[in-house]
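Figure caption, in words: inputs first, then the predicted bound structure.
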Amino acid sequence: MVKSKRWIIAKIFDGEPKKDDFKLVEEELPPVKDGEILLEALYFSVDPYMRAFDLSGLVGQQMVGSQIAKVLESKHKDYKLGDLVMGYFGWQSHSVHHGDEPCSLGLDSKIKPYVLPDIQGLSPSLGLGFLGMPGNTAYFGFLEICKPKAGETVVVNAAAGAVGMHVGQIAKIKGCRVIGFAGSDDKVEWLKKEIGFDAAYNYKKVDIDKALAESAPNGVDCYFDNVGGEMSSIVMNRMNHFGRVSVCGAISSYNDAVKPKATLVQGMVNRSELKIEGFMVYRWEERWLEGIKQNIQWIKEGKLKYQETITKGFEKIPQAFIEMLEGKNFGKAIIKA
Ligand code: NDP
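Bound structure (NDP present):
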């Protein structure tokens, strides 16, 4: 019998998540039946959606989340011993799953587990970041919705995070001018020096409107919005005619039970004929591999730099989750089992 450690949701989050919102338990796994696989988690992902989605129906159940896991036993033809698998198996060290079934654990994800494609010697942890869901969020959410053209000005926020730093670099690959907003001076320096952003600002310290007047005197053409709220109203009010806004997330208000109000944008949207479109990345599920392959190629060509903040130890998953929401991560927040 294999034992599995699992993090259970002990309480509904109230404001910022806290360590005692989670409880660690251990249980024996059932034997593997036909069609099933036994997995050992190697890497876990902590993501903002875990705070954004309503998990209240899951109190007392295992915490949701994706992981890269190794196949220890297989009774499914598509998986063999030692395969590395990406799946939404939750915060558990070992698990038994049916190889064909999505592991949504109550979320609206239909994503089935899949064996990682050949990632050409790169770290398997990237299957949760640049070569996984956040990477495809940047690739499809930016290119398909913003449709950037060379010479245009792009603004992205949460710019030193997994999706944001990736979007900014794709914008540079496409010949755009890139302005980023992030939450610390270290992040801002890093975006400019290491990732090649044309301008970057600490949104906690600057007047965002003045920063845009300085760095985008001719206006903003594309806005990739990870943050929402008043920052977005300010950026949108500086957009050019036929500007495009890709609404990826609204992390500035995920902890708020009562959502804050922001300055009206409709006048500007109307006058400047802006296109604003929200998306969920699994819209492009059919093209999943295309995004991964393109991102591998850009990494191999040296055009795309990836960054991960790796926390070690299964016991530290809640802490890593809390710290990611606090902005302590550079690039993708990962936990190594
Ligand atoms: P990140 O790696 O960017 O981590 C979250 C970051 O958000 C933190 O590092 C922090 O950076 C920033 N942040 C936290 N609170 C605030 C705040 N109040 N105002 C501004 N920034 C804040 O996470 P991801 O890259 O995984 O996700 C980024 C966004 O993309 C999120 O909104 C997420 O929900 C969304 N998303 C949407 C998907 C979709 O399908 N639509 C798929 C994946 C992600 P800082 O130090 O800069 O504050």
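The chain has a mean pLDDT of 96.
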